[in-house]
Design brief:
Elements lengths: L3 E6 L4 H12 L4 E8 L7 E4 L2 E4 L1 E2 L12 E4 L3 H13 L3 E4 L30 E3 L3 H17 L1 E9 L6 H16 L33 H14 L4 E5 L9 E9 L7 H10 L3 E3 L11 H4 L5 E8 L6 E8 L3 H21 L1
Parallel strand pairs: 1-2, 1-6, 2-5, 6-7, 7-8, 9-10, 12-13
Antiparallel strand pairs: 3-4, 9-11, 11-14, 13-14
The structure holds adenosine-2'-5'-diphosphate.
């Protein structure tokens, strides 16, 4: 089997560290690994597939003569904006986990269970974009339902973990909880979020937009239709909650006029969909929760129920690990499909 040289930009971050774990778990065919981060992390050791690698500094030249085939970028949009081109110029395909290239027309935006065929367009820019974490887990649930009934509109409210703000976000929640038990919460550091996140809920993720929505909410609106090649209405309310990992979503789906939703039929297509697990037995206290999804590669769905008033509306509850399904695992699944395409070509 052919092996590939892999670079990971953001190797010391929350998603970077998870990438190494996923690459190891799926026995990704790695020839050589190049972990990259800022000067702060140079020399730190990364272990993957039984080998130890040292983090190097991300520079404009670092990709030269390294024969990198696949470069995962997970160090923030401004880093991708500046450095992705150097990886592409050196001959690598960039799988970008930031929002920077997602809505660029000739950059495919891919969730492998939903639109794997778009990976073929990678050559136009040398870049494949990994969607927003909340979008990935939502489209995995929307796709089988859209194929079944045809979606007219989606209304989603998210309950997003602090892992979405990287290691700094996770540390801030832990520190604030510790301060709470030390009776010093009032003095705790508030940096990663606009307000204290411990014992709180913040209806504000990413930058406010002129239309009254946030950038995170508009990512869900725009990315969903790009991935699904659809044009249905989407409205999102994105909320940060004091959960360490795994985002939850309450999703209301309005299907085309005349559709009469059959809950059993909807459950069946969700059960049959790749990497989706249905847990839907409220009588026995069984439904998806972050403590179930964390550290897994599945997107969980439950609380599947028909609207009380309209036959064409379904309500569902979806949960997935943001760092894995919403980032590292999706990126690795893209890379695996890309390899499959390259080897078939
Ligand atoms: P570093 O740890 O050296 O700062 P997270 O999402 O958990 O906050 O992680 C962000 C990742 O992006 C880290 O690996 C971080 O490296 C990396 N990063 C941040 N700024 C830069 C930069 N200017 N150049 C390279 N990597 C960076």
């Amino acid at each position: 089997m052919q092996k590939y040289n892999v670079a990971v930009v953001g190797a010391s971050g929350a998603v970077g560290e998870e990438l190494f774990r996923v690459l190891e778990e799926v026995a990704f065919p790695i020839a050589n690994l190049l972990p990259l981060a800022s000067a702060r992390s140079v020399g730190e050791e990364i272990e993957c597939q039984g080998k130890v690698y040292k983090i190097e500094e991300l520079t404009e030249e670092v990709f030269q003569n390294r024969e990198i085939d696949i470069a995962f970028f997970s160090a923030g949009g401004s880093i991708s904006e500046k450095y992705a081109k150097y990886a592409v110029e050196s001959g690598a395909v960039v799988i970008d986990n930031t929002s920077h290239f997602r809505m660029v027309e000739d950059v495919p935006l891919v969730v492998p269970e939903v639109n794997p065929e778009d990976i073929e367009k990678w050559e136009e820019r040398g870049i494949i974009a990994n969607p927003n974490c909340s979008t990935i887990q939502m489209v995995q649930l929307l796709k089988p339902l859209h194929d079944l009934y045809g979606i007219k509109r989606v209304d989603v409210s998210t309950y997003q973990a602090v892992s979405g703000a990287g290691k700094a976000g996770m540390e801030e929640l832990v520190m604030q909880m510790q301060s709470f038990f030390n009776f010093t919460l009032d003095d705790a550091k508030v940096e990663a979020f606009a307000h204290q996140i411990a014992l709180n809920v913040i209806p504000h993720i990413d930058v406010p937009q002129a239309n009254g929505y946030t950038k995170e909410e508009m990512k869900m609106v725009n990315e969903t239709n790009k991935i699904m090649h659809s044009d249905f209405a989407v409205s999102a309310t994105c909320v940060r909650v004091p959960v360490l990992r795994s985002h939850s979503e309450s999703i209301t789906i309005t299907f085309d006029e005349g559709v009469n939703v059959d809950v059993d039929e909807a459950r069946k297509v969700l059960e049959a969909f790749e990497n989706v697990t249905v847990i839907d037995d409220i009588a026995n206290n069984k439904y998806p929760m972050p403590i179930i999804s964390t550290d897994t590669d599945e997107t969980y769905v439950g609380r599947i129920r028909k609207d009380l008033y309209a036959d064409n509306i379904l309500h569902i509850w979806g949960v997935a690990d943001q760092v894995r399904v919403g980032a590292a695992t999706n990126a690795v699944r893209i890379a695996q499909k890309w390899i499959q395409l390259e080897e078939e070509a």
